Amino acid sequence: MRLSAAYTAQVAVLPQTRGYRHFALLGERGKGSERAVELEAVLERQFRLVVPLRELGDRQLWQPGWQQLPPPLAMQIIPAIDLLDGHCVRLHQGDYDQVTRFSDDPVAQALSWQSQGAQRLHLVDLDGAKTGQPVNDVAVKAITAALDIPVQLGGGVRSAERAEELLDYGLDRVILGTVALEQPELVEALAARHPGRIVVGIDAKNGKVATRGWIEESSTSASALARRFSASPLAALICTDIATDGTLAGPNLDFLRAMAGASSVPVIASGGIGSLEHLLSLLALAPLGVEGVIVGRALYDGRVDLAEALQAIGDGRLQDPIASTVA
Ligand code: AMZ
After folding, report:
1. How many domains does the chain fold into?
2. How confident is the model at residue 314 (pLDDT cuts 50, 70, 90)?
3. Together in a domain, 196 and 99
4. Which end of the chain is more exposed for a tag (fewer CB within 10 A), N or C?
């Protein structure tokens, strides 16, 4: 977009509009609706007005132009509901002996995250992950029916038939962990049949893939498994660092960086979020392909306020790129 020479930029700065600061425009010839159209353009969030430095000394010569801004760094924040015997729980480092129960009403909990602005919900059937059999389908179906936002589920999905049954329930995405390690070709075939709806869950203990409720450890490295799927039409890789999961100690950024580097499939980070600062620290990985983060315990115990977090790092986040891009 190029601005007509009939307009000059005024030094006065409009107070931040939709998160950006903009120069006001004065139309020297343009008046009324013509000027209003130009002003409207000024307010478009993906552009900023630039004035060549050499012209700054002489206000009459200003030839303002427009520069497209890079897309703002943002990340999807996905609240997690882990289901154990019909209740909402969190485990510490995935240990089924260290359970904190947060709610006995999973549908109410899911609706609460939705009403606080969540754009997607992450469900885990913890019984399913451990036993390979679905145990929490009543809650899963009720949540999927009650919510308007897309819902994804992992835990115990060990066959193509089961994955398709879940998609038929109305789930937006199905996550496969154990099967992705043991029968990767099954996951690839599913992804080819349902592009953008199959997710691989890579759960890593000391860099190696863990399966079956994180009870079994393999000798396959998490990044090798990520590479295995780098050309598949998967919706995402959900990458969990088991050592940090449920600890609130902060995400393992090195692990996530390695996972994002191993595959061109978008990465969703999982594990360790305990504060807004932890969420902000993930933004540095957004350009590498980390597009979302799953948050559990920190939301339940109030350390992270979902609405505040969405404003800070979500899609509609406020930021002022002028301050950070002007040299
Ligand atoms: O907390 C745990 N012990 C746990 C957990 N959260 N075990 C498995 N899972 C999740 C994985 C993945 O989303 O993060 O279950 C899913 C994998 O299940 P499966 O049955 O495909 O391996």
Report:
1. 2
2. confident
3. yes
4. C
Please say if the pLDDT value at position 249 is more than 90.
Answer: yes
Judgement on whether residues 34 and 167 belong to the same structural domain of the protein:
no
Q: 129 and 205, same structural domain? A: yes
- Measure 33 CA to ligand 1 centroid, in angstroms: 58
Averaged pLDDT for residues 192-200: 97
Pocket test for ligand 1, best of 84, 95, 124, 294 (most atoms within 8 A of CB): 124
- Judge whether 320 lies within some domain: no
pLDDT, residue 50, reads 62
The secondary structure element, H or E, covering residue 175 is strand 173-176
| pLDDT of 64 | 58
Helix-, strand-, coil-residue percentages of the chain, each rounded to 5 = 35, 30, 35
Full domain range(s) for residue 38: 6-64
Q: Is residue 317 part of a domain?
A: no
Same domain for 292 and 244, yes or no, is yes
Q: Which of 82, 125, 127, 245 is catalytic?
A: 82
76-91 pLDDT tens trace: 999 999 999 999 999 9
